[in-house]
Amino acid sequence: MTATTNEGRTATAAASGASATERFRTDKSPYDAVRDVPKERVDMLAREVLDSVYETIRRNKVTYDEYNALKAWLIQVGEDGEWPLFLDVWVEHVVEEVATEHREGNKGTIEGPYYVPNSPDAVDNTIPMRDGESGTPLTWNGTITSTDGTPLQGKIELWHADADGFYSQFAPGLPEWNLRATFHANPQGEFEIHSIQPAPYQIPTDGSCGKLIAAAGWHAWRPAHLHVKVSAPGHELLTAQLYFPGDPHNDDDIASAVKPELVLDPQEQPDGSVAINYSFVLDPEA
Ligand code: MBD
Ligand code: FE
């Protein structure tokens, strides 16, 4: 099953997977980082992961048919370019948990596969969108402060899917920076953002991740979410997502990335728009 954008173009898992893989290679320079991991650490981590695989095979008496099904599926994940999607959906949340457990400020959550750095500054505090972009208009006010209460003149990079669940630069037919922008707080740390409310989101189901989901009888849904990266000089970068109360998938997010501290309290306005107030607290760099 493939999904169709509202321009009628076909969005395939393999195409968005290829974009996510390319994005990752460009932004994260993983091989430089790997060179610096001590041999002892690689040895221990690789052995522990393999030991847990052996344990699963023995306990469940895994057959050759099952082993070959796994092998075929792993080959397919690579061919589909779905390693970024697979890892960010099923593994990243624990890495994020460990990386941020020391923080006293804002809770964060996973980045996911669809961040693009250096989004242009918003014009009139409004995210770029198409004429007649569907979705409830959203006005968001808040502040950025340090853990000691000092206002921070920081910035917020915001990105989210459209009402059909598509991200610009990962699905065809969307303007390059649609629903992606950088917003700046004033010297009092205050910011204002205008966008639209995103819809619940299904990860691509026509590729290898979708095959796993179908074979296991899982679902592919993430609750509606706004992605942010919040930064200020001398402070740790905060990567987070914000969610809407009452979303049926807040309790069973396929990516396990919802935390109660990240659920908004939207107020419906007389004109049909929604107002939200959510502020960020950043931890000073150690
Ligand atoms: C998304 O939009 C997302 O945020 C994550 C974590 C995984 C897949 C798609
Ligand atoms: Fe997302």
Automatic annotation (TrEMBL):
Its cofactor is Fe(3+). Pfam families: Dioxygenase_C, Dioxygenase_N. Transmembrane segments: none annotated. InterPro entries: 1_2-CTD_multi_dom, Catechol_dOase_N, Cchol_dOase_actb, Intradiol_dOase_C, Intradiol_dOase_core, Intradiol_RC_Dioxygenase. The keyword Methyltransferase does not apply. Residues 1-31 are annotated as: Disordered. Residues 22-31 have a biased composition (Basic and acidic residues). It is an enzyme of class 1 (oxidoreductase). Signal peptide: none annotated. SUPFAM superfamilies: Aromatic compound dioxygenase (SSF49482). Keywords: Dioxygenase, Iron, Metal-binding, Oxidoreductase. Residues 40-106 form the Catechol dioxygenase N-terminal domain. Residues 7-21 have a biased composition (Low complexity). NCBIfam families: catachol_actin. This is Catechol 1,2-dioxygenase. It comes from Flexivirga aerilata. The lineage of its organism: Bacteria, Bacillati, Actinomycetota, Actinomycetes, Micrococcales.
